[in-house]
Amino acid sequence: MNLIFLGAPGAGKGTQAEVVSEALNIPQISTGNILREAAKNGTEYGLKAKAAMDAGALVSDDIVIGILKERIAEDDCKEGFILDGFPRTVPQAEALDAMGIKIDKVIEINVADETIKQRVSGRRVCQGCGASYHIEYKPSKTEGVCDKCGDKTVIRKDDQPEVVLERLATYHEKTAPLKDYYEKQGKLVTVEGQEEVAETSRLTLAAVGVE
Ligand code: AMP
């Protein structure tokens, strides 16, 4: 099964993509994580991407489409994959269609902007492996330490309040039109984000047919 997870920054699409990835045993491909890793390693495209990411803007379509193409050509994607954070623009969605990639469903995690602004301040990410946490809704077992790899969990630079406002504006302008794009293809399923993460996960799993 090939799935896309759509949602505003902080809506919890990454968390839900991870739950479904584990349930279906198919890889979760987060373009944000790939870009952060490239920025950390100081690769040419990583450094270009970093400036856009730090400002809450999108990285250019050319760069992310190239990354995505390479990633889904890997062996572990043969049985399906979950795209977390891609596509984020209509040209990216068109590129996916042009590659002949069949998408089964597009899951939108819908959360109001006001709720997002309150939530994002509690987000933490592992500086080593990129795993995500929330101090209230999804805490790591030991505060500040990643459950998966033991590295430090930190606040993402682009989770600072001013940058979050910018990212939300970018989402509404560039990414939200994808809802229409996939609605027309009959693939869009909207899951209303709940107060309890576990409840959102239950609805998300039901949306992809896992009970
Ligand atoms: P995320 O971890 O999904 O919130 O992504 C973090 C940042 O990476 C975004 O704010 C963008 O700057 C960049 N990014 C990730 N995926 C894409 C994409 N598909 N297109 C453009 N920029 C992206």
Précis, in short:
Helices cover about 45% and strands about 15% of the residues. It has about 210 residues and is an alpha/beta fold.
Summarize the SSE layout with pairings:
Blueprint: E1 2-6, H1 13-24, E2 28-30, H2 31-41, H3 44-54, H4 61-72, E3 81-84, H5 90-98, E4 105-110, H6 113-120, E5 123-126, E6 132-134, E7 153-154, H7 161-175, H8 177-184, E8 188-192, H9 197-207
Helix pairs in contact: 1-9, 2-3
Bound molecules: adenosine monophosphate.
Account of the protein in words:
The protein is an alpha/beta fold. The chain has a single domain, classed as P-loop containing nucleotide triphosphate hydrolases (Rossmann fold). The protein contains nine helices and eight strands. It has helices spanning 13-24, 31-41, 44-54, 61-72, 90-98, 113-120, 161-175, 177-184, 197-207; strands at 2-6, 28-30, 81-84, 105-110, 123-126, 132-134, 153-154, 188-192. Strand 5 and strand 6 form a beta hairpin. The chain is globular, with a radius of gyration of 16 Å. The structure holds adenosine monophosphate (AMP). Adenosine monophosphate (AMP) binds at residues 9, 30-32, 35, 52-53, 58-59, 64, 85-88, 92, 158, 167.
